[in-house]
Amino acid sequence: MKLDFDEALEKVGGFGFIQRFHFSLLMVIQIFHAAFIVGLAFLGKEPNFTCKGRIARNPCQLEPPCKEFVFSKDFTSIVSEWDLVCDSKREAGYAQSLLMFGFLAGVIALGTVSDRCGRLKTFVWGMIFLVAVQLASAFSQNIYQYSFSRFLVGFFSGGGSLAGHILMLEGLVPGQRALISTVYHCGFASGLAVFSAMAYYFRDWRQLTLITCLPMVFFIFIPLLIPESARWLASNGRIQEAEEQLHFFGKKNGLKVSQSLITLIDKTDDAKGKNSADGMVDLFRTPVLRRRMIVLMITWFSCCLAYYGLTFGASNLGGNMYVNFALSGIIEIPACLLSTVALNWLGRRPTMVGSLFVVGFACLGVMALHKSENGAMFSSQTCLALIGKMAIAVAFNSAYLYSSELLPTVLRNTAMGVCSMSARIGGIIAPALPPFGEKVAYLAFGITALSSALLDLTLPESLNKQLPETIMDIESGLSLTTLHPEKRLGIS
Q1: Residue 63 neighbours by CB under 8 Å, 6+ apart
Q2: 50 has which bridge partners?
Q3: How far separated are the first and last CA of the chain, in Å rounded?
Q4: How many alpha carbons lie under 13 Å from residue 268 in its C-beta half-sphere?
Q5: Measured between alpha carbons, how far is 157 from 96 in angstroms, rounded to an integer?
Q6: What residues does the Major facilitator superfamily (MFS) profile domain cover (predicted)?
Q7: Mean pLDDT within 459-485
Q8: Which band of pLDDT confidence, cut at 50, 70 and 90, is reported for residue 160?
Q9: Helix H segments across 331-374?
Q10: What's the mean pLDDT in 230-249?
């Protein structure tokens, strides 16, 4: 009897020893990868400074303008390295914007490469180039060289990390996607705390840059330890290779799986013609997938806008910057783990919609309470901001899983790349809103979150449903097929 991929994966042990081993390796990379994305939180931090030989409360308002600045010795950064203060302050911000633009370009370009050439190759080469560029950035001689390196870091990080996420997801049976995907994203949150510890002990920005590369050295061994996605192989007509890989999994999981037991359904013909992975155009060619993509793009935009908006807002709380930064990541862990329960018991859509509603109302509440200078009001505002931060962590975590389950295998990486592209636009806009006033910023965060929640109500539920393999699966409604009870639990 021929099996679809989820059935075959269950036959060889589901999330057995070998799958857990592969996941652990990807998780470690996820933890140390965080420093590459958020590095400018410390590498671009502005130290306290004064004007050499002159006394002024605000060195930027001196007449004539100050020509030489003296920075505190607590830490160094690109700001103190190249005097990026006062009129030059905006140049430090360009580096972060370029990283986001690079991320946007990377998820588009390398997302398509991943669907055509494979998840593993894209992931490995993306991460190798990422480390190389990060290493080179430590020797930048001016802000222009460094800013260009940030664009390349964003490019390879965006495309490479997305391929790694898909590689992880496609090896999971339906009943385990929520939990394992959530734990995977907790790795990034943990990475914020790890990076904060690195920054605390290494106060020189060039040394800190080099230290972030060190844990990634073992990455060159990944191709020897993790195979290509068997699901991708099967969806691209390489059925024999996929079956051999599944038999290998069964053997490593301690199961006796006969050669005749694992025979995959060949959907290569279904993936041809209008369902072939020609690129992003295919995502908007058919009505059901087109509507689904538009809603998901708006959702990802809203999630990233609110996430970075609330993160930037939290940085104004004061106190020890290393502790605050670590806590901003740690606070996401219980939120993400809590979302696992909701994703499995309430469903993907209710969790997504509910968390966005919480984010929306929390942001609107922050905006309303900001009118008062009363201390109690400030405490209430801070509380709402933290509730919003936890809720957006749930929403963003849910978006990765929910979107992956609603998109076809033949275009999943490309589609996720487009969604991530929409998210990066939100990430670029978020830091540009506060100059217009905090009320305007929080109003934008709240309205976009609430609008996305309403749009997500039009999406189908994907809990305990088969992953769609082709565009035809989505258009025909095959992806809405409910799995049998034993498959929901991921057992054979």
Answers
A1: none
A2: 70
A3: 15
A4: 10
A5: 14
A6: 27-464
A7: 74
A8: confident
A9: 332-345, 348-369
A10: 82
Q: What percent of the chain has pLDDT over 90?
A: 22
- DSSP output for 252-317: HTT----TTT--B---TTTTSGGGS---GGGGGTSHHHHHHHHHHHHHHHHHHHHHHHHHHHHGGG
**pLDDT range class, residue 453, cuts 50, 70, 90:** very high
Q: Which residues contact 55 (CB under 8 A, 6 or more apart)?
A: none
Amino acid (1-letter code) at residue 181: S
Distance between CA 361 and CA 344 in Å, rounded?
24
Q: What is the dihedral of CA 285, 288, 291, 297, to 10 degrees?
A: -80
Tokens for 96, please give them.
Answer: 């972060």
Are the C-beta atoms of residues 126 and 161 closer than 8 Å to each other? yes
**Omega before 350 within 30 of 0, i.e. cis:** no
**What is the pLDDT confidence band of residue 276, given thresholds at 50, 70 and 90?**
very low
Q: State the number of CA atoms in the 13 A half-sphere of 415 facing the CB.
A: 31
Pair 87, 138: CB distance under 8 Å: no
Tokens encoding 147: 């800013």
Could you tell me the sign of the dihedral formed by the alpha carbons of 222, 227, 229, 233, in that order? Answer: positive
315-363 pLDDT tens trace: 555 557 788 778 778 888 888 778 878 888 899 999 999 999 999 999 9
Mean pLDDT of 378-388: 76
DSSP 411: G
Which residues are registered as beta bridge partners of 482? Answer: 465
Q: Which pTM value belongs to this model?
A: 0.75
d(CA 114, CA 203): 37
Total count of residues recorded for the chain: 492
Summary mean pLDDT of the chain:
81
The pLDDT of residue 2: 61
Confidence of residue 417 (pLDDT cuts 50, 70, 90): confident
Cα→Cα distances 183→30, 47, 190, 428, 467, Å: 11, 35, 10, 27, 20
Closest CA to 148 of 212, 76, 205, 94: 94
Instruction: Give phi and psi for 286, each to the nearest 5.
Output: -110, 150
Q: Which of 449, 474, 476, 450 is nearest to 462 (CA)?
A: 474
Report the alpha-carbon angle 60-209-109, nearest 5. 100
Distance CA 25, CA 346 (A): 30
Give dist(CA 420, CA 158) in Å, integer: 8
Question: Among candidates 338, 342, 432, 327, which has minimal Cα distance to 385?
Answer: 327
Contact 185, 400 (CB under 8 A): yes
Burial class (CB in 10 A: 0-12, 13-18, 19+), 401: buried
